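Hey,

Quick one before I head out. I ran the complex with iron/sulfur cluster overnight. Inputs first:
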Amino acid sequence: MITRHDWSQAEIQALLDLPLMELLWQAQQVHRAANPGYRVQLASLLSVKTGGCEEDCAYCPQSIHHSSDVSGRPELEVELVLARARDARDAGAHRFCMGWAWRDIRDGAPFEAMLAMVRGVRELGLEACVTAGMLTGPQAARLAEAGLTAYNHNLDTSPEHYDRIISTRSYQERLETLERVRTAGIQLCCGGIIGLGESNADRASLLQVLASLDPHPESVPINALVAVEGTPLEDRPAVDPLDLVRMVATARILMPHSRVRLSAGREQLNREAQILCLLAGADSIFYGDTLLTTGNPAVEADRELLAAAGVRVEAEPALAR
Ligand code: SAM
Ligand code: DTB
Ligand code: SF4
């Protein structure tokens, strides 16, 4: 299978617009070749620093610019975070993702605590992922040295639609952050959100930027907007589940070897729609009953979902009990 980084927007648009059955068929063939055992990765999320963020991302309940009822809280302590990571591991998670509602990482005690969390999560035998906004080259190097597996920084939407969603940080700054993560040798987790009022052309354009990254991001989260009260996007209509299926399938075709993570918005999907997303090539989910500030299906429901779909999870994490 050839991995391409030169997809044109027209080619991607044509994939998104294929008759659904044809799109699914193509995506399944790519997926079967790239991930023959159909192993799904389970990633648990924890918000270490919640709320009070100075960025103005229109979808986000954690921004100080919006009136959602997420209040700014101090960071969680290292021991508490590691206890939650251990619980996630014992429930079967492979990756532990920690979030900070920051514009960027600053040096000092909270960064030292982040490094201790990364080391601790790795010692538990889990992959560690951090999402904390922009970072500098030396900070990325220290995260790599602490054993960070992946850094999550999403492009969120197309370059064309971006200014309608965020004004406090540019698309170019996001791309520069991604570059620093790569330079430090950390895996990239980078994707976007649908349901922000973007057009089909915007979706194709976002996918084009992602697929032109060389190498492709190792994981690509596809989020459906969770329209939270108090955010400027609170009244956005719900995403059509089949649009999510199309987005996942197209991401799978463009980036055969990436983990395509079916991310926020699963609570709005019934079991069958989630199974269609798995069929379309999603091979990772967020696992555990909360995302950062909003809900996610319960662990038992997800176990049942995966069993109903007949997919297996990645090997259990190397246990270091
Ligand atoms: N502050 C850091 C940043 O923005 O990179 C890290 C945390 S931020 C909450 C991580 C990602 O969560 C965002 O880039 C966005 O893609 C996703 N996200 C946030 N709120 C969301 C919502 N209401 N619905 C769907 N995805 C959301
Ligand atoms: C990603 O793409 N989605 C996750 C994770 N990366 C950090 C976050 C989703 C957040 C949904 C809204 C909330 O719970 O606050
Ligand atoms: Fe802050 Fe991240 Fe939310 Fe944007 S998405 S407001 S940067 S926490």
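Residues 20-34 form the longest helix (15 residues).

Talk tomorrow,
K.
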